[in-house]
UniProtKB/TrEMBL annotation:
Species this chain originates from: Clostridium perfringens
Protein name: Uncharacterized protein
Annotated coiled-coil segments of the chain: 66-93
Domain of life, source organism: Bacteria
Keyword terms: Coiled coil
Amino acid sequence: MINLLGNNLDGDTWEKICDYCYRQRYQEYHFVKIPSNYEGDGGIEGYTGNGVVYQCYCPEREYSDNELYEKLRDKLTRDIKKLIKNEKELKAVGVKYIKEWHFVIPEYRDKRILIHAEKQRKEILAEKNKKKLDYISNDFSIYIKVIEDFSVEICRYVNITDGIKFSFPLMEKKVINKDEYPSEQLENIERKLKAISGESSDQKRLEDLINIYAGFYLNWLELRTSISDKNPELFEKILKIQEAYKTDIEMKCKTNFDSTINAKLFNEIMDDFGKALNKEFNDLVDPKSISDLKHDTIATWLAECPLEFY
């Protein structure tokens, strides 16, 4: 599961995040949260004045694709039926009409949940017509909403909330196949690490280091796509700090005419950039992810030339 909210995502946390997202997005439509403390929430977490109601759900643990589908299917089925069963309760809390029912989940991996949602939509409309329910819209729809649909609101939520941080997905350790690796980038990494380590460096250790940084570079190519898709605001922050440091780093390398201090300069650059990342993202991103971002960025600079050693 690619999860930019880390492993601390439970039902209560997810509900708070969803409430915040809907309050932010639908405030102009007079969003109303329905507390469940007294006789439950009537089958919805909240509603808006323009006909949107929502129900959130967070799986208890990591499930297989089929298990996740079954959990989502069963939860959706139970809760959507409450729109019919709880007519009096819904009207009593101020729901005038329902045009959209949102099922808000971290993710789904199987198109069957979309097929099931459409089946349930048709059943709700059939019940509406049979019982002449005036609060269900004639063009009633069910929508499956996921983390990516609220990237802006979630980024704001993490900014103002203690105890929750973004966690980048763990990437599998790369086994570098030099025949398949981008040749120019791999050559850059090899050349620069040789210049950093010096002529007398142990060949086996150097090869290991080259493979490690080549792996970091490939990780970033995957990770940046994931972050930009799921959280554009966070991705923009990352790009800004990378760009800000790239020019400084390039100048430090170009003004170094003493190859004997390459390793010292490389470590200083890595330490300084790590401190900058911690200062910028300490409240947003967990420490392991910040460390990964540092190494992935350094590897990218080695591969794509701003970080140059002679």
